[in-house]
TrEMBL record:
<protein>
    <recommendedName>
        <fullName>Thioredoxin reductase</fullName>
        <ecNumber>1.8.1.9</ecNumber>
    </recommendedName>
</protein>
<dbReference type="InterPro" id="IPR036188">
    <property type="entry name" value="FAD/NAD-bd_sf"/>
</dbReference>
<dbReference type="InterPro" id="IPR050097">
    <property type="entry name" value="Ferredoxin-NADP_redctase_2"/>
</dbReference>
<dbReference type="GO" id="GO:0019430">
    <property type="term" value="P:removal of superoxide radicals"/>
</dbReference>
<dbReference type="InterPro" id="IPR008255">
    <property type="entry name" value="Pyr_nucl-diS_OxRdtase_2_AS"/>
</dbReference>
<keyword id="KW-0676">Redox-active center</keyword>
<dbReference type="GO" id="GO:0005737">
    <property type="term" value="C:cytoplasm"/>
</dbReference>
<dbReference type="GO" id="GO:0004791">
    <property type="term" value="F:thioredoxin-disulfide reductase (NADPH) activity"/>
</dbReference>
<dbReference type="Pfam" id="PF07992">
    <property type="entry name" value="Pyr_redox_2"/>
</dbReference>
<keyword id="KW-0285">Flavoprotein</keyword>
<keyword id="KW-0274">FAD</keyword>
<keyword id="KW-1015">Disulfide bond</keyword>
<keyword id="KW-0521">NADP</keyword>
<feature type="domain" description="FAD/NAD(P)-binding">
    <location>
        <begin position="8"/>
        <end position="299"/>
    </location>
</feature>
<dbReference type="InterPro" id="IPR023753">
    <property type="entry name" value="FAD/NAD-binding_dom"/>
</dbReference>
<keyword id="KW-0560">Oxidoreductase</keyword>
<dbReference type="InterPro" id="IPR005982">
    <property type="entry name" value="Thioredox_Rdtase"/>
</dbReference>
Amino acid sequence: MTNIVSTRLLVLGSGPAGYTAAIYAARAGLSPIVVQGIQPGGQLTTTTDVENYPGFRDVIQGPWLMEEMQAQAEHVGTKVIWDHVAEVDLTRRPFVLKGDSGSEYHADALVIATGAQAKWLGLPSEEHMKGKGASACATCDGFFYRGKKVAVIGGGNTAVEEALYLTNHSHDVTLIHRRDSLRAEKILQDRLFAHPNIKIIWDSEVAEFISGGSPEALTGLDLRNVKTGEISRVDVEGAFVAIGHKPATELFEGKLKLDSDGYIAVETGTTRTSIPGVFACGDVMDKIYRQAVTAAGTGCMAALDAERFLAAEEFDALQAAE
Ligand SMILES: Cc1cc2nc3c(=O)[nH]c(=O)nc-3n(C[C@H](O)[C@H](O)[C@H](O)COP(=O)(O)OP(=O)(O)OC[C@H]3O[C@@H](n4cnc5c(N)ncnc54)[C@H](O)[C@@H]3O)c2cc1C
């Protein structure tokens, strides 16, 4: 027999957006349920040092921060369930979500906080060097490379923005792109080309992340020229892969309005999606900032939007009954 779990508010995802939505919803008396997904705690559990989440003078650890958020959410009345949702039906209320566990979740309102994953190059040496010199977020990790030589890999807006951002910390930034022109907007390209501390290596892809020392750290990148096949080395201590992100929205394709990049579309200034009662927060609806604190901020907004939606509905039902 199917295990049916009914709730006023279901939060899908357990990153900073999901747990913040849960904290606010629990404190509003909605007794929310968080379905954690296959990455309990979200992306921050894959990193070590976090130095830009407000409230902590010293560097904190990503996994620790997420354990604290979960504990806070549970402390104020959230139920946290480890499951992965594989199917959703948003055509009727309550919304129905089916988990891999066999449970079925019935929710009067839904907050989607399924995040987005950075795309990586897929090299074993890159995987090995994640957190030891290979990063996918200059805003998050650039500060740790103050005064060091760094590289950015990519040719779109994100890559150019990351390269420009890194000049705040490094006097020697190399942009590596596999083509002979950039896809980034012209205004960004103009700023990039004009910057004295940025150089560009064209027609090249990363063949290998090179490391050494103890503790092991990145020392360089081997590059393959895509036209000649020639291998050359660039010495860097930080390499930022900026080839895009993939929002976790497969579940919602054809069911909710997504933007041209696959992110959940929300009404400007709110977390309301194209379906009343469904709200989206965090990286799954934000392709610009993608930070833990902005995810938490929109998580708060989603809970408040959901609470107001449910309260208005309740009020209408009461009036109709009188
Ligand atoms: C290596 C790294 C370092 C970073 N460092 C920093 C930093 O120093 N400072 C900073 O501010 N930001 C940092 N970030 C960015 C930050 O982690 C993200 O912006 C933030 O985690 C986004 O939060 P989120 O809640 O929107 O989504 P996520 O953290 O991505 O969480 C998504 C959640 O959704 C769940 N989920 C997905 N699909 C399903 C499903 N079908 N069913 C159920 N659950 C599902 C997942 O299990 C996960 O729990 C870093 C990111 C990375 C990758």
